[in-house]
């Protein structure tokens, strides 16, 4: 659906009901609205909704729900639950990263954004051996990735998830005494580079912004949240 259609829909509906009082036969309405639409679009509509705005609107409820169900911020979080959460994170990130790498090809990989090595480092620090990690269950139900729009939708979620890192890092240190050196590096995986990397991603997302591609971006972002939440629920780490 074009962005204008989204923002104009309520305006058109209002106008249609106003005209239906004057012209009660529904068959009279479409030509009138058709004639009105180009004019009302340019006069009444706000600028088209950017892909970033669409992503924020489409995923806001999923973000809130996941944040509330993840016990990372809960006062009774214990070390055992924390380790199980990181194991489940690994089980999602490892196969997803492989899928992204396969889609991008070796030349386009972005080592700076790869997070799985940090998760492995944390799991080692928390007592897991390589053999333990290799036996962890991994998610097979991943979001679709056969279009660049899908890639950006997935990245929006996985890159956006780094933004809460500072808050989480402080909380986990306060509750469990775990910090970057002993098992919580992943929570603030980009550290001081968080803002720079997020901005660079947003710049690329803005370049991609196009009405033909945006639905794929939004669809993949929603699917990523949904798959991740289902995976964490199956791993038994959500409330
Ligand atoms: C308890 C866990 C979480 C907390 C406390 C948290 C907190 C935050 C915070 C503080 C921001 C920054 C908001 C801003 O600066 O405007 C943010 C953004 C974001 N988070 Fe989370 N988050 C959590 C979990 C997650 C998870 C698990 C995901 C996805 C896997 C996620 C995805 C995102 C995304 C996509 C954004 C970017 C929103 C935007 O600016 O467009 N978050 N989060």
Give an overview of the whole structure.
The chain has 239 residues and is an all-alpha fold. It folds into two domains: 3-44, no CATH class; 51-234, Heme Oxygenase, Chain A, CATH 1.20.910.10. Helix content is 66%, strand content 0%. The protein has ten helices and no strands. The protein has helices spanning 3-22, 29-44, 51-69, 79-104, 116-125, 130-134, 148-160, 165-176, 194-208, 214-234. The longest helix is centred in the middle third of the chain and has 26 residues, at 79-104. The chain is globular. The two termini are 36 Å apart. The relative contact order is 0.16. The structure holds protoporphyrin IX containing FE. Protoporphyrin IX containing FE binds at residues 56, 63, 66-67, 70, 72-73, 156-157, 160-161, 163-164, 167-168, 228.
Short description:
It contains ten helices and no strands. With 239 residues, it is mostly helical.
What is the strand and helix layout of this fold?
Layout: H1 3-22, H2 29-44, H3 51-69, H4 79-104, H5 116-125, H6 130-134, H7 148-160, H8 165-176, H9 194-208, H10 214-234
